């Protein structure tokens, strides 16, 4: 059946995504295209398994292992692993693919992505938003993001976060840094924009908050 927004049928959207993946191989700046693929998967969850399978296919026996086009597929696979969990059969298939890649190309960039993806899949529980452009750039380099938190009565604090870091984890780290561990007060993060200010739920992923700001 037709999906939400301006989407057509799942079959047609799957074909569009396949064409996007073909284009990804040649993109100089693949970040916007990656975010578009992730957004489609968020809007149309049945396509998550489809994209995982397509990416496994594209990274199996590539014409130029470790080339730019091949690494673009691995980078999108990395972003997928930090955003969506595939179904159990696809997850088993994906893990087999990761193991095989690490075995065939030890110490290569593909093996490093495979290791990162495996660790991410063990933490991913699903996202409210797709990764921001900044987060995608960091994931492409397998690095953490730097989040700036403004504290009343203290200078702004920079905190390194991953795609899986929760608001509670950041609040606890800041409490420790500011020497407030023995304080009887409760502490929380707040999300502030021009129109509103509201507390961030303890289990909320900071990466989702940053995407909303973007």
Series of H and E elements: HHHHHHHEEHEEH
Number of helices: 9
Uncertain residue ranges: none
- Give the domain tally: 2
Question: What does the overall shape look like?
Answer: globular
Going by helix content, strand content and strand pairing, the class is mainly alpha
Stated plainly, the CATH topology of the largest domain is called Serine Threonine Protein Phosphatase 5, Tetratricopeptide repeat
The biggest sheet, with number of strands, parallel, antiparallel or mixed sense and barrel status, is: 2 strands, antiparallel
Strand line-up across the major sheet: 1-2
The counted number of beta strands is 4
Cα radius of gyration in angstroms: 19 Å
Organism: Oxyruncus cristatus (sharpbill)
Domain FERM: 145-214
InterPro entries: Actin_motor_Myosin, FERM_domain, MyTH4_dom, MyTH4_dom_sf, RA_dom
Domain Ras-associating: 143-214
Describe the structure.
The chain is mainly alpha-helical and 214 residues long. It has 2 domains: 10-140, Serine Threonine Protein Phosphatase 5, Tetratricopeptide repeat; 145-213, Phosphatidylinositol 3-kinase Catalytic Subunit, Chain A, domain 1 (Ubiquitin-like (UB roll)). It is 52% helix and 7% strand. It contains 9 helices and 4 strands; from the N terminus they run αααααααββαββα. It has helices spanning 10-24, 31-43, 47-58, 68-81, 88-104, 109-121, 133-140, 167-177, 206-213; strands at residues 145-149, 157-161, 190-192, 197-199. The strands form 2 sheets. Strands 1-2 form a two-stranded antiparallel sheet. A hairpin with a 4-residue loop joins strand 3 and strand 4 (197-199). Helix 1 runs parallel beside helix 3. The protein starts with 9 loop residues before the first helix and ends with a helix. The relative contact order is 0.10. The mean pLDDT is 92.
